[in-house]
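Researcher: Please translate sequence to structure tokens.
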Amino acid sequence: GYLFGCESETENAPVAADLAKWCEENQYVLAKEPVYDLDLLLPGDLIFYSYGGNNGRFMNIDHVAIYSGYGSIIHASDETTGVKKGNYWVDHYIVMVARPAA
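Model: Translation complete:
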């Protein structure tokens, strides 16, 4: 029921940076840095990454993952491998953590 970064259901899907901007504007941000304590994360939290330097988007964000619990995330890494489950890795590429569906 959430329209992340969209005004209507007919708009194109927003990119990761648009989702992060929407989360900030609607006060769903948990941290603007990596979260090291996994007990603070809940399934559904969004983990935003900035890998490529200045891309002109909000906070230079270019990737988002969904925390699925127990130290795991779900994300689409590329077109070849598609959506996959992986480990939540804490590194300097994490620029924001948000909880839009609490």
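Researcher: Any highlights?
Model: The CA atoms of residues 8 and 23 lie 17 Å apart.
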